[in-house]
Design goal:
CATH architecture of the largest domain: Alpha-Beta Complex
CATH class of the largest domain: Alpha Beta
Strand content: 25-35%
Oligomer: single chain
Largest sheet: 12 strands, mixed
Number of domains: 2
CATH topology of the largest domain: Fumarylacetoacetate hydrolase, domain 2
Distance between the termini: 44 Å
CATH superfamily of the largest domain: Fumarylacetoacetase-like, C-terminal domain
Shape: globular
Structural class: alpha+beta
Length: about 290
């Protein structure tokens, strides 16, 4: 199953991703219209969707990629994980962590899969990431059971303004990563059963067609089940919560000399079996 959001309403996307129907309309008002209402009854909704007979050709409309929002646009909690690929920890000059370094990206930075990325400074960096959306309350969950608590997976970018992020006596990770548009996600949420191996998905970021990051999620230090286990041991994870799982090597700040995004750059981020994002960088007048 694939779901997306448009104008605050949840859509069910056809298997070939070409057409979509409004969840509230095709369910006769039983589910939705907003994503939060659907995630709060995710298990029931997923059973209904699995049994529903939907004629996407007759009832659907073309998927408007440039109008979609994040698949879970108003989560109660957002978790972001740092240094979660060994090669990224190595390029950043840090030891491999024993527990997941965790910060947040505020919802004000959320955006859909396609659009402009306004650059507030000259030190904005890219970070391709697999993003997890939680489907039911998870509290003290064992890793072996964790996938059953996941609604699905989507593509994300953890754009980062490095000057603010690293300023002051204590780094401002969350602020530096939460400017408007700094958390694009999408184009849709893909449920786990659609993926041949959800623990091993190719991930790539390209800038103006040049590959700058290329890896696989099987290289995560803390896998998706491991993250659910460790985070839910501290506090409950709630339906619709979002987890940015970390980025592989290839970020701009680690290059010599450092490389940052510029006006006109086109950033494309793809994950195998899910889809891709496309942001066009726009310099902010000073």
């Amino acid at each position: 199953m694939r779901i997306a959001t448009h104008s605050g309403r949840m859509l069910l996307v056809s298997p070939d991703s070409s057409r979509a129907v409004d969840v509230s309309q095709v369910s006769g008002g039983r589910y939705g219209p907003g994503p939060r209402e659907v995630y709060d009854v995710w298990e029931e909704f997923a059973r209904w969707a699995g049994d529903a007979t939907i004629d996407f050709d007759a009832d659907g409309v073309p998927v408007p990629l440039d109008e979609l929002g994040a698949p879970s646009p108003d989560p109660r909690q957002v978790f972001a994980i740092g240094l979660n690929y060994r090669d990224h920890a190595d390029e950043a000059g840090f030891a491999h962590p024993d527990s997941p370094p965790t910060f947040t990206k505020w919802v004000g930075g959320f955006a859909g899969p396609v659009g402009d990325l306004r650059l507030p400074t000259e030190t904005v960096d890219w970070e391709a990431e697999l993003v997890v959306v939680i489907g039911r309350r998870a509290e003290s969950v064992a890793a072996a059971d964790a996938w059953s608590y996941v609604a699905g997976l989507t593509v994300g970018q953890d754009f980062s303004e490095r000057t603010l992020q690293l300023s002051g006596p204590a780094p401002q990770f969350s602020l530096g990563k939460s400017f408007p548009g700094f958390a694009p996600q999408g184009p849709w949420l893909v449920t786990v059963e659609e993926l041949a191996d959800p623990d091993n998905l190719a991930i790539e970021c390209r800038i103006n067609g040049e590959t700058v990051q290329k890896s696989s999620t099987d290289r995560l230090i803390f896998s998706v089940p491991g993250l659910v286990e460790q985070l839910s041991a501290v506090l409950p994870l709630l339906p619709g919560d979002v987890i940015f799982t970390g980025t592989p090597a290839g970020i701009g700040a680690a290059r010599k000399p450092p490389r940052f995004l510029q006006d006109g750059d086109v950033v494309e981020t793809t994950i195998e079996g899910i889809g891709g994002l496309r942001q066009v960088c726009v310099a902010t007048p000073r």
